[in-house]
């Protein structure tokens, strides 16, 4: 699969934008130009929709097992090309190569799981209240669907939508983030190699607003799955109204991470590093607010600082790097603003806070792992998603206080807490107003389980059998029985 495609995949063919316009894909660690990709507009978006519409009847008519076979081959090919895909991902996105390798395996797992779930889409019979009636409930594919995906997990955010959509019998248009389209094209290449028919999967890069408007304006598209910011998600809800398009939205988060006095502190530190500092803190489920009970506050902060201090910051392809670059200059500006705002309101830096270039030829987009103490509700860190390797820590006294602080947010995607009290584990897990709860677990996401949020973090679920429901319509069939002749 080398070199990777740099053109749009439409109806099984690789195409440039009709205007010839292109977008630059650069390495955020070095600003190296990696590729030029099409800057598609409405014309190619309409072509991709038409291709998906034309491919739909034959694809949804296939028995589930026959749809599962090419999906299973796609997952296998992703594992076969594991190192190439991971290297490509790191080059365009920046995360350390070890994390990129993990993402490719994670991404393939969603395809594998969905291929199996294709065979388990069951209907129902329902007891009737009339002797001359039989009630059937059928589950059928929604139809043509679209996925709009972010830059922070450019492979996994595609496959956990693509897998269940195709397994259910839908056809799809994928619009990847402008910063990271190459991973999407690589998945498109492997999909064709796996035998997924032309038009079933289409991948187009270009202006997000134009493509989204075109998708929502076409009544052919019956479902859109979006991962991104709450602000963009709100705009998409408005656009979806015109054709009453079904939505799944995985939006912003502001995850709390609670450490109780009875916690295993070493496990809590390990979980904090996994959840907060993966991808340089650029994940929607990473903790943005740490609440540590007074009895262990000093010890936890000291252990966390000791674990973070030696972590190497640098280009993702360099050996031993644990923290890669922020994605772009806007991300750098936001992290710097949040740190400066906290300090101006009286917070102190226990560790880090520096944004710098770690070596010759590298950009000024790197931030050292940072611990901020003395955080209170007046600071941006307490209310806004930072998307950087910054851990704001606040002391609390009682369990009820921790729950109140944790739930004091319009967001409800992920949450975490550490305790060795079995009763507290149940109480807190049930009290947290979040779609995902990591109880003594800093990395709860897996292909088998439902992933998604509540409140302003969106709705819909990805993963497990729940993901299939997002791409299936429920049809009620009432059968009237005539009298015997």
How would you sum up this structure, described in words?
- By secondary structure, the chain is of the alpha/beta class.
- The protein folds into 2 domains: 8-251 and 458-476, Aldehyde Dehydrogenase, Chain A, domain 1 (3-Layer(aba) Sandwich), CATH 3.40.605.10; 255-446, 3-Layer(aba) Sandwich (Aldehyde Dehydrogenase, Chain A, domain 2), CATH 3.40.309.
- Helix content is 38%, strand content 22%.
- The protein has 14 helices and 24 strands.
- It has helices spanning 42-61, 64-80, 82-93, 97-117, 156-168, 182-194, 208-217, 230-240, 265-277, 297-308, 329-344, 399-407, 422-431, 464-469, and strands spanning 8-10, 13-15, 22-26, 33-38, 124-126, 133-141, 144-148, 171-175, 201-203, 221-227, 246-250, 255-259, 287-293, 348-351, 355-356, 366-367, 370-373, 390-396, 411-412, 414-418, 436-439, 454-455, 458-459, 472-480.
- The strands form 7 sheets. It has a 7-stranded mixed β-sheet, with helices on both faces. A 6-stranded mixed β-sheet has the order 9-8-7-10-11-23, with helices on both faces. The chain has a 3-stranded antiparallel β-sheet with strand order 5-6-24, with no helix packed on it.
- Helix 1 (42-61) crosses helix 7 (208-217), helix 2 (64-80) packs antiparallel against helix 5 and helix 9 (265-277) packs across helix 10 (297-308).
- The longest helix has 21 residues, at 97-117.
- The radius of gyration is 24 Å and the shape is globular.
- One of its GO terms (molecular function) is succinate-semialdehyde dehydrogenase (NAD+) activity.
- Its EC number is 1.2.1.79.
- It is an enzyme of class 1 (oxidoreductase).
